[in-house]
Every structure is written in structure tokens, then in C-alpha cells.
Amino acid sequence: MTQQLRNTEQLALRLPDGLRDRIKIAAATNHRSMNAELIMQLERLYPADESAKSHTD
Predict the structure, then answer these.
(1) How many CB atoms neighbour CB 37 within 10 A?
(2) I want to staple 32 with a disulfide (CB 3.0 to 4.6 A). Which of 3, 16, 36, 41 is the partner?
(3) In the prediction, which pLDDT does 5 show?
């Protein structure tokens, strides 16, 4: 295992019925793990540059 996990945080998450299955299907379609799929979508919705702007307002 690589040392990439050094700067990560874990999050316990409750999902509505059916959402886990939809994420699993999307991840398989995109040839990603479920974790990678979630990260990709969250990064798309919350880009780092937008986060930095909201902290300075």
C-alpha cells in the first residue's frame, strides 16, 4: 500500500436506500472504485478554488 493515505480523512456516512447501489453502478461504469467515484463527484461539485474563495468572504 502506498503512503497516499497520509493526508486523508475518513468519514462515516449514512446513505438513503438505493443510493449505494447507484454509486456502485456509476463507479463500475466509469471503471473506478466507489471511493474514487465519490471523490470525483465531490471534487466536481466543490472545486478547491471555490472553497478558498468562500473562506475569504
Answers:
(1) 19
(2) 36
(3) 60
